[in-house]
Amino acid sequence: MGYTPVLALAVFWTLYSWAIILVALRIRLRKIHLRQILQTSDYCILGSLLFAMAHGCLCTWMIAMKLKSHRGLSYTSGYPEIEVAFYMGFKGIEKYLKVAYAGTLIYICSIYLSKAAFLAFYYTMYARFSKNMKAALHGVTAFTVCSFLANMLLNLLWCLPLNRNWTFDRHPKCPAAVGLPSLVTGTASNIITDFLLMIIPLALLRSLMLGKREYIGIAFVVFLGSVCIISAAIRFCGYYSIMITKQSQMTQISIDGLILWGNVDIAVALIAVCLPAFRVLLRNGRSTSITERSLSMRNNSIVCRGRGSCAGNMESQVELRRMEMEGCERSVI
């Protein structure tokens, strides 16, 4: 499948724009409408968004460098990636690989901060979990933390000194990002943690009284999690092909495709982690509104009884009872 630089830029910056909008709306609901302080999950999402923007800017620079290198090339050899490499020169390639190495570390931080936001959200419902679910949540949290540390350490320590990841002159070239241990560990841990984070809400469905809209919302979040898993698998196939063939022109997915699917993974994870909290925030806001209206109507009813009679007092009592029942139903959900 062919990927053009313009397509890659358009797709992942569109997804990033949606992620920024959702994160901004989430913070606005939390701070302005509900007047609550930011929670741990909110800080994790903000951190993930910050790293995501940094990753997107680095990838944009890489694509721009590639487009600049394409000018004036004939591509008569049949190996466009090699022609671009020779046109950039060793210094240009070293700069390109240095940015790619930094982007790999930033990618890991952004992805795992999104996972941490999911875990922090689950811990807000910790009191409602069964004993087995609590143990499972602790296990998933421990596995996620260990996966993050393993990925960071492999990418930082696999090639020492660090400049072996991008230099050609003094040391053999050793890019940790396409090393088999870091590649397999990173992809496997990313997919497994995504799968475990999707299993937790599915395991709670039996104990929750949910309506049709809630089930649709959960199905959509699971779909987004599946997109993250698929994008991670596609990245693995592309990097594995590069590592095996040693020639990126032989791969079935271009460098632009690798950049695209890496950013899709980050952006979709941010969108997915915002959606469940949106439902909770909106429900809490609706419950607060119902409670305030209920108290106001109850006070008016007491005043009416004190004065003897009020027109429509019976209708007020019926409306009060209806709102109280609605609030009870939502509190169960």
Describe this structure as you would to a colleague.
With 333 residues, this protein is mainly alpha-helical. Helices cover 79% and strands 0% of the residues. It is built from 8 helices and no strands. It has helices spanning 5-33, 40-70, 80-123, 131-157, 180-203, 212-245, 255-307, 313-332. Helix 1 packs antiparallel against helix 2 (40-70) and helix 7 (255-307) runs antiparallel to helix 8. It is globular, with a radius of gyration of 26 Å. The two termini are 45 Å apart.
Counted by DSSP, the helix tally is 8
Largest sheet: none
Mean pLDDT level: 76
Please bin the fraction of helical residues.
Answer: over 70%
Number of strands: 0
Distance between the termini: 45 Å
Strand residues, percent: under 5%
Order of helices and strands: HHHHHHHH
Structural class: mainly alpha
Uncertain stretches of 5 or more adjacent residues = 74-80, 247-253, 285-295, 301-321, 323-333
Which word captures the global form? globular
The gyration radius over C-alpha positions equals: 26 Å
In short:
With 333 residues, the protein is mainly alpha-helical. 79% of the residues lie in helices and 0% in strands. The protein has eight helices and no strands.
